[in-house]
Amino acid sequence: MDLLDPRNQRHTTFQKTQSEGQNLYTKIYEMLIKKQYRKAEELLGEHFSRDPFSGEAMLSWAELMLYQGEPEIAIYKIGELLRDFPENPYYRLAEALLIAETTKRDEELFELDLVNVADFAEDYCPDDLPDIFAKIGFNATARGMWSFGMFNFIEAMKLKEELSTGVDPLILLWPTNEESLHLYWKKAWAMQGRVSGYSIADVPLELVVQTVCILLIAYEDLGICEAWPIATLLGHSHRETREAWDNLTSLFSRFCFDWIQIRSRDGARPFGPWSAN
């Protein structure tokens, strides 16, 4: 049993390599952690030449300024943009991140700032809401706010799933899994304060595996690019998931049985949450 499927008919193998499916934000993020600042500047310059007010590009540029130690430049620029475009959720998210990084904002206040960003997106730019949820999820989990971050990733998944046509619904989001997702979300508090990339050996394996499973479904089946870096960092922060990274089937079948189905390569009947029926 080594093929996993988050839909009851649609097939995905959960290949653990990053595809070409990156958006600008995750491309810039990768460059920033590699300290490829000049390369990031060039890529952003290309985007700004086509769209000087691109929300995603401006958000990425603000983070570049933070990495380069020049937040005051970004704060001034974003402030100007918000005076002209106060309802732009990307500018508001950039402002929230800049405030959090430059003032060491209290976690509860930072979370409230991010909730306000999502509220603005819902009220004024609903088409951007799935992407805003994903970027909030990314920034929250990357800062160790796992419960809040995963809640936003799941909200992004729900909205993206509503836009999917011609495919079977995600098993993870079936109404019968509402309770298990709620229980997962409550358990995610056990990772609170754990920054991605650092050891989480004392965190229950079940919680790590379930988090990685949700993030991989978000990335591979719904194209939520922000989920991939978090899944990778988390998966390599725990010994058992790191060692099983090339084939997580046994861990997923053990801890995520209600969220996926498992197919055998010989074409035998798949196993999953309905197989007992």
Q: What integer is the average pLDDT? A: 88
- According to DSSP, the number of beta strands is 2
Share of β-strand residues: under 5%
The total count of helices amounts to: 13
Would you kindly provide a written description of the structure presented here, covering whatever features stand out?
There is one protein chain. By secondary structure, this protein is an all-alpha fold. It has a domain at about 1-15 and about 155-275. About 60% of the residues lie in helices and about 0% in strands. It is built from 13 helices and two strands. The chain has helices at about 25-35, 35-50, 55-65, 70-85, 90-105, 105-125, 130-140, 145-165, 180-185, 205-220, 225-235, 240-245, 250-255; strands at about 5, 260-265. The chain has a two-stranded antiparallel sheet. Helix 2 (about 35-50) runs antiparallel to helix 3, helix 5 (about 90-105) runs antiparallel to helix 6 and helix 6 (about 105-125) runs antiparallel to helix 7. The chain starts with a strand and ends in a 14-residue tail after the last strand.
Summarize, please.
This protein is an all-alpha fold and 277 residues long. It has helices at 24-33, 37-50, 55-67, 71-84, 89-103, 107-124, 129-142, 146-163, 178-187, 205-222, 227-235, 239-243, 249-255, and strands spanning 3-5, 261-263.
Topology, element by element:
Layout (H helix, E strand, L loop, with lengths): L2 E3 L18 H10 L3 H14 L4 H13 L3 H14 L4 H15 L3 H18 L4 H14 L3 H18 L14 H10 L17 H18 L4 H9 L3 H5 L5 H7 L5 E3 L14
Antiparallel strand pairs: 1-2
Helix pairs in contact: 1-2, 1-3, 2-3, 3-4, 3-5, 4-5, 5-6, 6-7, 7-8, 8-10, 10-11
